[in-house]
Amino acid sequence: MQLKNIAAALAAAALVAATAPAMAAGTVSEFYPFSEIMMKMMDKNKDGMVSRQEFMDMMGMAWDMNAKKMGVKDKMTPDQFNQLLQYLKAGG
After folding, report:
1. How does pLDDT run across 11-60, given as a tens digit for each residue?
2. Which residue ranges make up each domain of the chain?
3. Which of 24, 28, 73, 91 places its Cα 20 to 30 Å from the Cα of 18?
C-alpha cells in the first residue's frame, strides 16, 4: 500500500517537473486558451456569440479599470496600451 502512495507521489512530481518549464516560459495559454476565456467573459447573455455591445462593454471596463491604475485620463501611450493588452491576456 505504501509503495502505491510513493509511486503516485513520484508520478505527480514528474508531471509537475515536466510542466513547470512550459508554464515558466509563458506557454500557459496552451492550457487556458485566451480567446475562449475572453469569449466567456464577454458573452453576458450566454448565447455563444459576442455582440458588438458586449465587446464594447468589456473593452470599456478594461480601459476604465487599467486607466485608473496607470493614472491615464484621456489617452494611453504605447507603453500603457501594451500594459492594458497584458492585463487582457492575463484574463483579468
Report:
1. 444 445 555 555 555 555 456 677 888 888 899 999 999 999 999 998 89
2. 1-31, 32-92
3. 91
